[in-house]
Amino acid sequence: MSTKTEFASKIGLIAATVGSAVGLGNVWRFPAEAQANGGSAFLLLYILCVLILGVPVMLAEFSLGRSTRSDSIGAFRKLTPDKPWWIVGATAVVASYLILCFYMVVAGWTLEYLWGSISGELYAGIENLGESEMRGFFNGKMEYYVQSEYRPVMFLSIAIAINIGILLGGVQKGIERLSNILMPVLFVILAVMVVVSLALPGAGAGVTYFLKPDFTKITPISVVNALGQAFFSLSLGMGILITYSSYYPKNTNLMKTSIIVSLLSLLVAVMMGLVIFPAFKSFGLDSEPMQGATLVFVTLPEIFARLPLPQLWSTLFFLLLAVAAITSTISIAEVSIATLQDRLHIGRKKAVLTILLPLAVLSALPSLSFSSLSDIKIFGLTIFDFLDSFSTNILLPLVSLGVCVYIGWILPGKFLRDELTNHGHLHAWPNTIAQQIIRYVAPLLIILVFIYNLL
Ligand code: PFF
User: How many CB atoms lie within 10 A of CB 360?
Assistant: First the structure.
């Protein structure tokens, strides 16, 4: 067990964890949620939720992973071998696998759009279109890219192949090395896009809408949504952070790491807002809903089409989206891979292939549910939407609640204190606050959100 793989450097472990956190949640879910819940008011709530709740729950997961150096089931088994708390870890594995099934589909779409942008296929024929015809044109493209029978499944296979390639490289040479390269790329592209968007005529009004707080817009629903968004975007409740932190060296400062990861994830969401809101305002689209998929696959291509050099902006944006998606899918897949490796004592190659090859079939189902399987409904939802809402609205809060109760009430208080202070080597005061939040505030709020989601 002492030969457990570790991330090679501090920068590497932060890049990998930020890579997991920064994903579709920040890029397309955040602007949609912000628009639906009062813009800047939502941003404020989201920041509060990330810092007050996200950071402590992240610390709870980190302490489980780093102390036990185990997968998300093994962590609970090691600490309380005679009790059934490992079920929380097992639920995390199931949740992460279900999420992977639809997340990988979207990763495939981003590659499809990236290819469409590079090859020019996505924009072929726009020169003959009037402004009013653009929407129909890109809606048609999305239908073709997302709903045709074979094409999305082909790009889904490419996304899975990329994941297999990275994950076969292992923790240091695969996940860490790739994150070290891709995360700076993501930030540079995003910075360029912010500058371009802010330079558009009339962009200032969009910035004001996004950044000037309007407290009258805050409702109980926006609080629930901000909390859900914070958990989703920080990759909480899926065993990802338990798994990644099991590769953290023993001297890692968990508090510092969790704050850096949360702030960087927040930064990406805010930068994304600074791309989307000014651009929408500038093109007079601000009354249109920024619904996730439509936002990135229809409205943004329409905006790129109206700019000089559409192919360039489109390529940069879909590269950013693909990077965000792939660095997240590898972390989601790693939960199951680590579990197989640790529980069944099998080699990495076997574990990677056992998890990802069946995914090609399992993910094809949600992908095809946009076309040939669209009649199959579970509780009135397509397979894709069912997986999305069941895992994110039900399993994710359940696991987070389980983790908080476990750390806050089942394990002795000394456990978290020792982990957060590296056994007395680091300052203690913020840890006391984290401990109280994990014990009382987080469980209460998670239960409220859970009840709300069920109703
Ligand atoms: N945090 C990533 C995102 O925001 O896209 C990855 C992720 C985590 C996706 C948790 C889904 C999820 F439930």
Answer: 16
